[in-house]
Design brief:
The chain is of the alpha/beta class. The chain has helices at residues 5-10, 12-15, 21-30, 42-52, 85-96, 114-118, 131-144, 172-175, 188-191, 195-214; strands at residues 32-36, 56-60, 101-105, 123-126, 147-154, 157-163, 223-228, 233-238. Helices cover 34% and strands 17% of the residues. Strands 3-2-1-4-5-6-7-8 form an 8-stranded mixed β-sheet, with helices on both faces.
Length: 267
């Protein structure tokens, strides 16, 4: 693949970075990233991955744009209220970078369709807003051996980690063995969320995905990054592999996606 003059101009600030260069930009152009949820986290992540020249982006979301989304979901505008989020997102991303491929899936992730989505992608970004989907995506990526960049937000705090147990690192269940009971944790509609917090964590997800594609920097696969927007503090905590993990441990009790993955209303 040879870059056109316009591509060289578009990606010039990447190409002059020694850690990226022309070879790295070609890796980005060949990469395929699936984004689960075109909402608060998926919006900034998708915009920056598109701007970076990631060759194929997949958007999975079954919802339509609501006016209340616009406080944090910057992939959408007032003009797209009422239309499917994946279509609104496709329009925005195509306007930003018409050279990439954007695939859309107006469906909610479920146990009976997720493997179909994963098969065509290298990396998955989870921007879902409920625990059940987060665990489903983790389990499916484990079985499909796909690297997962997981982000979450609540009120003024965000969390981020990279999950790749197929390379010997812990999975999401090593940190949280199972979802909390439905209703135990309030969702964003009930408790609120700082809109710009979604931008912070979503952009960091995009950054980690780009690092994984390029093979540069330090991975977050054995740590959890916690961000407190009120205190403006970042901290990392070690995320060890759990030998008794029900998914990736030495004696797993979860061996397929036949468990209960019905969506609850907690984030």
């Amino acid at each position: 693949m040879e870059f056109t003059d316009s591509q060289i101009q578009r990606y010039s600030r990447h190409i002059i970075l020694p850690e990226v260069g022309g070879k790295g930009q070609k890796k980005l152009s060949r990469a395929k990233v699936l984004i689960v949820g075109a909402g608060g986290l998926g919006s900034p992540a998708a915009l920056y991955l598109a701007a970076a020249g990631v060759g194929t982006l997949g958007l999975v979301d079954g919802d339509v744009v609501d006016l209340s989304n616009l406080q944090r979901q910057i992939l959408h505008t007032t003009a797209t209220v009422g239309i499917p989020k994946v279509e609104s997102g496709r329009q925005m991303l195509a306007a930003l970078n018409p050279e990439i491929t954007i695939k859309t899936y107006q469906e909610n992730i479920a146990a009976d369709n997720i493997m179909r989505f994963l098969q065509d992608y290298d990396i998955v970004l989870d921007g879902s807003d409920n625990f059940t989907t987060r665990f489903l995506v983790n389990d499916a990526c484990y079985f499909a051996k796909k690297t997962l960049i997981s982000g979450s937000i609540f009120r003024f705090e965000g969390q981020l980690t990279t999950i790749k147990p197929h390379e010997g690192y812990p999975c999401y269940r090593c940190l949280y063995p199972e979802p909390p009971p439905a209703g135990l944790v309030p969702n964003c509609q009930e408790a609120g969320v700082l809109g710009v917090l979604a931008g912070t964590i979503g952009v960091l997800q995009a950054s980690e995905a780009i690092k994984e594609i390029l093979g540069i920097g330090e991975t977050l696969a054995d740590r959890l990054l916690i961000y407190d927007a009120l205190e403006m503090k970042f901290r990392k905590v070690t995320r060890p592999k759990d030998p008794a993990c029900p998914l990736c441990g030495s004696h797993p009790t979860i061996t397929d996606l036949s468990g209960n993955y019905s969506v609850s209303c907690s984030i």
